[in-house]
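Quick entry, no commentary yet.
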Amino acid sequence: MPSGALEDKTLGSLGAKLMRDLERNAERKTINTKDGDKISYAEYRAGASKLVLDEIDKVLAGHYGFTAEELDFIMSYDIKYRLGGDAENEEG
């Protein structure tokens, strides 16, 4: 990572924003085991935090000197492969 990115306070605040957003969008679930125990957990849906992830990608793209086309590729890849969506249907 470029050294300037390590000192960028924007990335730190965006990281905190992402964690809050992930928690806010998490679905709390409880399951019962065969032994009668209950297990509670949070199921995180990264796709619901796509706008924050895009903000982070844009800041990092600036640090790495990516072109607009390279940034667009990364953000489209994110939709298609990481979030399981369809780039044509993810507008908005």
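second:
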Amino acid sequence: MSIYWNEKTKRLAPYVPGEQPKDRKFIKLNTNENPYPPSPLVIEAIKKAASETLRLYPDPLCTELREAAAARYGLKTGQVFASNSSDEILAFAFAAFFEARGNPIFFPDITYSFYPVYAGLWEIPYEIKPLREDFSIECSAYQGKSGGIVLANPNAPTSIALSIDELKMIVEAAEWNKRVMIVDEAYIAFASTKGSCSTQATKSMLPLIGEFPNLLVTRSLSKDASLAGLRVGFAFGNEELIEGLCRIRDSFNSYTLGSLALAGATAAIKDASYYDQINSRVIATRSRVSQELEELGFRVLPSQANFLFASPPAKNGHEFYLALRERGILVRHFNKPRIEAFLRISIGTDDEMDVFLEACREITNEK
């Protein structure tokens, strides 16, 4: 530790992202990236925006992008916030809506590991709620008095989703306490067996924003729009919540999205049919791989995301992770209580998953 760090910096336990190797070629199934390229319209829009106008500041309000998102999801522009990734938006939301000296916020013991990092950054007390033995969320645990609630749906890394009725029970309790509930929908596009926008809408909390003034829904273009390299995210909620996010953002940096990101993200939002098509392929591959892993003796949790959470039969999770890595395949292993036996496996192309499955067969059959 540096003598120049303040006490808060010394106490922080930062988030550790998935490995991004540069030393050799891997099949990357470790960071939940979409295996298919962005829409051609996105590339075209970025090329068009790469002009002499880059000398000018971008629109700090992200107006065109927010209008496009509002039109796609049937909301008002004032109910949409756009910024540099849903991770950044979540950090803004923790700062805007949760109290450092208030009641603890609630989130699961096994969930997106950035949540306790944000709580530590803003010195917000939190209480983790254990998942059930099957790794599903116990809804009744979130209905008591809290400082707010944060749930990923589908949850990560377990990949399991709650129903709308279950989420409504929780957000109603949070509204009774006049606390904000954040629903992190980074993987919602994969929470359907069909992949169509209309089917996805029945899985999302977006239609309930008008009903619940305390509901904030966050989303990302990293997974479902194949734009992890562009770093664009959204929050959806009533105008008061959006204004709160704007106040936090504008206390850091009003220009969170550059012109190229704005152009590419707007094109992606407008090309829903392309992304429905490729994400349907991801869902179909997920189903096939899940079945084949179960036939090999893996325990596979019921996934509604673009990844699988599975426990191998022949070796412990870390050993299996290392064996796959030796074969040029990266997956994610979390050395944490209750899930150290599991691997998180991003869904790649069919060819990539065939190589992965063959490696699993080899490792499983080793004595």
